[in-house]
Write a structure and sequence with these properties.
Layout lengths: L11 E8 L2 E4 L2 E2 L2 E6 L5 E10 L2 E2 L3 E7 L4 E5 L3 E2 L3 E10 L13 E9 L4 E2 L2 E3 L11 E3 L8 E5 L8 E6 L10 E5 L3 E2 L6 E9 L9 E8 L6 E7 H4 L17 E6 L6 E9 L6 E10 L24
Parallel strand pairs: 2-11, 12-18
Antiparallel strand pairs: 1-4, 3-9, 4-8, 5-6, 5-7, 5-10, 10-11, 13-24, 14-17, 15-16, 16-24, 17-23, 18-23, 19-22, 19-24, 20-21, 20-23
């Protein structure tokens, strides 16, 4: 704890690192620190050295007027980093051009996580017809056991042969394990008209052995997943119970729509399968899109004005 009322003439102390810390949104930020003058002399200048991951930035000179016992926030030059975990360190020196008489309180550091806040524009879709899982989509398989895979079936949602994503819960002997298909980071923009649509088919094994699927969303700067859709057992089933491995028949599919109007900016969606040693689950035709009317440039919910902002003739 910093003690005020120092008998030193020149003593500046670091109270804390305000930015960066924890998770920051975006890769460019302005570092901020809090300093306090513990010396008896009015503080009018000091040198600030700081670094990212051990790479020093140019020293920064602060000037101002800080009476004894007063504190202030100092903003350092804007800094850009890569996505991921980083280390920020800072050190104060030369208060009023003199040696700091109490240097033990001059240094500080902390770890932070920089999250990229750019995403693919709408629409984002996946019919699982190409390389699996597709583009920037990803599979999360914590137990490295059975998980989502590409499957060629005889009856897709259109009652024809086609590729889907599926998970073999029939042979997945563990219960309660989770496996996820995650979308890329997607920019919903500022529109309140985004929605998520998808098709799925599922049959349980019995009233004792059944599985579960959740659809969840998170924003770029929040580690918490929010559940939008959650079904299991008969609520999830689109066909009757089967004790043989299930594959969809024509007409087994359910088409779902989830309103995303409460969300804007950059988000990620995941489809979570939770095994109950039931039967097979199929997923297809995932699409994140906007229902807003396009402007004259074809941007959903855009504000381009015909005759002035349009890049094409209207």
């Amino acid at each position: 704890m910093l003690q005020e009322g120092s008998t030193s003439d020149n003593d500046v102390a670091l109270q804390g690192i305000l930015v960066p810390g924890g998770t920051i949104c975006g890769l460019t930020f302005t570092p901020e620190i809090s300093i306090i003058n513990l010396g008896s002399n009015t503080l009018t200048s000091l040198e600030i050295d700081y670094d990212i991951d051990g790479n020093p930035a140019d020293p920064y000179t602060w000037t101002g007027s800080l009476n004894s016992g007063q504190s202030t926030t100092v903003s350092l030059p804007e800094t850009t980093v890569s996505s991921g975990l980083h280390f920020f360190g800072v050190s104060l020196s030369n208060p009023n051009g003199n040696t700091d008489e109490e240097p033990s309180n001059n240094d500080g550091s902390q770890v932070f996580n920089a999250v990229e806040t750019t995403g693919s524009p709408l629409p984002v879709e996946n019919g699982f017809n190409g390389p699996f899982p597709g583009g920037d989509w990803s599979i999360q398989n914590p137990d490295e056991d059975v998980t989502w895979e590409q499957d060629l079936i005889g009856n897709d949602v259109n009652c024809s042969s086609g590729y889907t994503a599926s998970i073999d819960f029939y042979t997945y002997g563990e219960q309660g394990e989770t496996d996820d298909i995650e979308t890329p980071w997607t920019d919903l923009g500022s529109s309140d008209a985004a929605e998520l649509t998808f098709d799925y088919a599922y049959a349980r094994y019995s009233s004792f052995y059944f599985d579960r699927m959740q659809v969840q969303i998170k924003t770029a700067c929040d580690d918490n997943w929010i559940t939008l859709w959650d079904k299991e057992n008969l609520d999830l089933a689109t066909a009757g119970s089967q004790t043989a491995p299930y594959t969809p028949s024509c007409g087994d599919w359910s088409s779902e729509t989830i309103d995303l109007s409460d969300y804007s900016g950059v988000v990620k969606v995941r489809f979570r399968g939770i095994t109950g040693w039931g039967n097979n689950l199929y997923l297809d035709n995932i699409m994140l899109s906007s229902t807003a009317e396009p402007d004259c440039n074809g941007v959903p919910g855009g504000d381009a004005v015909p005759g002035s902002d349009c890049t094409t003739d209207s």
